[in-house]
Design a protein that fits this description.
It contains 14 helices and twelve strands. By secondary structure, the chain is mainly alpha-helical.
Length: 470
């Protein structure tokens, strides 16, 4: 082939190649144009969860729905575990006797959060229907407990149905959170029959529960000498309220010590978050997992302790700093829906209800008490909007992560189940609603509302005292 023919052939091939590329470019442009045309863009934001200003009546409506669901969950009777029939003859012991099934019958830490929230709602709203549950439940327990106690030798099992290990505490889950709500109920009713169970709980937590040599409360599961962030809430609120009940400084000292010594192992300053757990086995190189509810337990613990400790109490300033830092850490991780993710730093994990309610409560409480700036207000407000969207018409609280062990892999945490049957979300939702009512009633703050259908409008929480009087 001569030089001219070769040049001609190359030229034709280049033209074909250019034509193919041009055709491909045109196809891609048309495809992109079609996709663009199908997308709906709006100058007005479209929110997945309503970006709205809640009112107090709507909040109360949500709280009463949750209360109704809780109250309907159990008749609070003693039944035959085999037949399900109610036991009315207590003259002789029935080895199959157990409390009736249902959330409101449980002597459990999740019920303890609910009952503490009911006591708080009594203060916030003055509506006695909430606190009536506390009196009814604890009377149910202490009036029937002697039946099991005097026949203890015949009970050949570790747990008595939903009352768990009430006859022989083994862990903080058995008594700490529910014990704190029992103290709060006693302080209002002065019902002396509650005191033996209160003092037995205090003896277990103070003198019997396993601790590290420095006094830090510890579990021997799943690893030997493991510290769980959950146990802050299972111990410190009880200790703080025990100090309030007795006036004995040792309980306050222990409560402060637990928060500070837990934080030495679990709080990660550069993240301003709590690791879920730590064990002596892995020490300073323990893997870190920032589970949402673990941080919720830590914040609710610090809120309770700060609410009870005298202003000038030794160590209170350190607890306050830890609380404020954690608030800042979680604030930055709120999802665009108003929720927080089950694993706070992993946006591919699901949006979780209980931690969202816990954070909403802790932020709103901090603003109301003057512990943190009012500028955090919109975070609490949008957190509440997200939280209430998970409360079903019958009052069930959906989307709560199931009970979770201290694990060592993200695969486990990322694939936790969530449902209305995970009762960890009910108390936090009640607490969040109570504190939002207080926030909306806070007369030191002016709330400038976002305008509907606006291109650029948000909520501003304004501290009135910072501005000249109009």
């Amino acid at each position: 082939m001569n030089r001219f023919l070769k040049m001609n052939l190359i030229k034709k091939l280049k033209i074909k190649l250019i034509s193919s590329r041009t055709l491909l470019s045109i196809v891609l442009i048309l495809a992109n144009s079609l996709v663009f045309a199908q997308q709906e863009f709006s100058r007005v934001p479209v929110y997945e969860v309503n970006y709205e200003y809640p009112n107090i009546d709507s909040i109360k409506s949500v709280l009463h729905r949750v209360r109704g669901y809780y109250e309907s969950s159990s008749p609070q009777t003693i039944i035959n575990e085999k037949t399900g029939k109610r036991i009315t003859d207590f003259s002789k012991f029935n080895v199959n006797a157990v409390p009736s099934v249902g959330f409101s019958s449980e002597y459990s830490y999740t019920n303890g959060v609910v009952l503490s929230a009911f006591e708080y709602l009594d203060d916030v709203t003055g509506d006695k229907s909430f606190f009536a549950n506390n009196v009814q439940f604890f009377n149910y327990v202490v009036d029937n407990l002697p039946y099991f106690e005097k026949n203890k030798s015949q009970i050949h099992k570790e747990k008595i149905g939903g009352w768990g290990r009430i006859l022989n505490f083994h862990a903080l889950d058995d008594c700490g959170s529910i014990g704190a709500s029992l103290i709060k109920t006693y302080l209002k009713t002065k019902e002396e029959k509650y005191l033996p169970l209160i003092y037995r709980t205090a003896d277990f937590i103070t003198n019997e529960h396993y601790r590290l040599p420095d006094g830090t409360i510890t579990r021997n599961r799943p690893q030997y000498e493991s510290i769980w962030a959950d146990d802050l809430y299972m111990s410190v609120p009880f200790l703080a309220n025990m100090g309030k009940l007795t006036g004995d400084k040792k309980y306050y000292d222990d409560a402060v010590k637990q928060v500070l010594q837990f934080s030495e192992r679990l709080y990660i300053p550069e993240k301003e978050l709590f690791d879920h757990g730590w064990s002596v086995t892995s020490g300073e190189y323990d893997p870190r997992f920032y589970w949402g509810r673990a941080n919720g337990w830590a914040l609710m613990t610090m809120v309770e302790l700060l609410s009870i400790l005298p202003e000038d109490y030794e160590g209170r300033d350190k607890v306050m700093h830890l609380y404020r830092s954690t608030i800042r850490g979680i604030a930055n991780l709120q999802d665009g829906t108003g929720f927080w993710h089950n694993m706070l730093n992993k946006n591919d994990t699901f949006l979780e209800t209980s931690c969202t309610a816990m954070f909403t409560f802790a932020i709103a409480k901090g603003i109301n008490e003057g512990w943190i700036s009012h500028v955090y207000g919109p975070i609490a407000l949008t957190g509440w909007n997200a939280t209430k969207s998970r409360v079903l018409p019958d009052g069930g609280v959906d989307g709560t992560c199931e009970a979770t062990t201290f694990a060592h892999d993200n695969v486990y945490y990322a694939n936790r189940g969530a449902s209305i049957h995970a009762t960890h979300g009910y108390g936090p939702v009640l607490y969040a609603g109570a504190e939002m009512i207080r926030l909306l009633q806070n007369d030191t703050i002016e709330i400038q509302k976002a305008k509907d259908n606006s291109i650029n409008s948000t909520f501003h929480f304004i501290k009135k005292s910072e501005w000249p009087k109009k």
